[in-house]
Design a protein that fits this description.
The complex is a heterodimer of chains A (76) and B (198). Chain A is an alpha+beta fold and 76 residues long. Chain A is built from 5 helices and 2 strands. The longest helix of chain A is centred in the last third of the chain and has 10 residues. In chain B, 65% of the residues lie in helices and 11% in strands. Classes of the chains: A alpha+beta (76), B mainly alpha (198).
């Protein structure tokens, strides 16, 4: 990969949506068909979900994918 | 075929304790004891022998099924090696851990290949056989042969020598090396999976 390309970091506010809807990580995980560890990893920024999972999360909160996930540019 | 695989696996697993009992039995009681033993001993030996024969045949059949059948392999090997893929993240981590396991196993195989081929001997010869006044000799060799019995035996050295150090390949059997590799694969996979899960 070229050095001048910016590093894209995907950030999310999943914990905010979860708090708004008053559901636990365990409940959300069960609803969207993943493990709680995956929710923990997504919220902690250690794991970027696939498009399918991102859409599933957005659908669950009845919102747009961009409101939960956004891109933060970082020059490496 | 799925039902056949399931039956095959169950018979293999349930036959394991019986095979173990036979192994213990034959360890404690030799052929002579069975020959001169009573009806009970003979019956037990005959029955356990039959079970072992069937179990051995099933082991080969099961191994072949594991090689050719993808879904069966996924079901059985995944359970034996503790592979868990409950969601997409775990599937990705499994891939990464498998890569690590493959690469470390490959490196381990290269090491084993070197250790099984290299031959080193350090010895001393009598003063009259000295080369340029030197009696200490280091002999290096590469003992690779394609077939187990295809080795071309060189005539034995008749020179008197005092061995200081001699290494002529790995002193372990083929079965031990294969077992070591199986254990290595499982350990390296599980270790890297645990590290990735943290």
């Amino acid at each position: 990969m070229s050095k001048c390309l910016p590093q894209l970091k995907i950030v999310n506010c999943l914990h905010v949506f979860r708090a708004k809807h008053r559901i636990t990580q365990e409940q959300l995980a069960k609803e969207i068909g993943v493990t709680r560890a995956t929710i923990v990893a997504i919220e902690g920024g250690d794991y970027n979900p696939s498009l399918e999972l991102a859409f599933r999360i957005a659908c669950y909160f009845k919102t747009d994918i961009n409101t939960i996930f956004s891109i933060k540019e970082e020059m490496k | 075929m799925k039902r056949f695989d399931s039956v095959l696996l169950k018979v293999f697993l349930y036959g394991l304790p019986l095979a173990a009992v036979l192994a213990v039995f034959s360890y404690f009681y030799g052929v002579g004891v069975v020959k001169h033993g009573g009806g009970y001993v003979k019956f037990l030996n005959g029955f356990a022998g039959l079970v072992l024969a069937v179990w051995m045949m099933l082991s080969v059949l099961l191994s072949l099924r594991l090689i050719v059948s993808g879904p069966f392999r996924d079901r059985v090997i995944a359970r034996i090696t503790f592979i868990r893929e409950r969601d997409e993240r775990e599937a990705i981590l499994t891939g990464k851990a498998t890569k690590t396991a493959f690469l470390t196993s490959f490196a381990f195989l290269v090491l084993l290949f070197c250790l099984s081929c290299f031959q080193v001997s350090i010895y001393r010869v009598p003063q009259e056989k000295a080369v340029d006044g030197k009696t200490g000799i280091v002999s290096l060799g590469f003992g690779f042969s394609l077939l187990e019995h295809g080795r071309q035996d060189r005539p034995e050295d008749t020179i008197e020598r005092i061995n200081i150090f001699s290494y002529r390949g790995l002193p372990v059997s083929n079965a031990t090396i294969i077992l070591m590799l199986i254990v290595w694969q499982i350990i390296s996979y599980n270790y890297s999976m645990r590290r990735l899960m943290k």
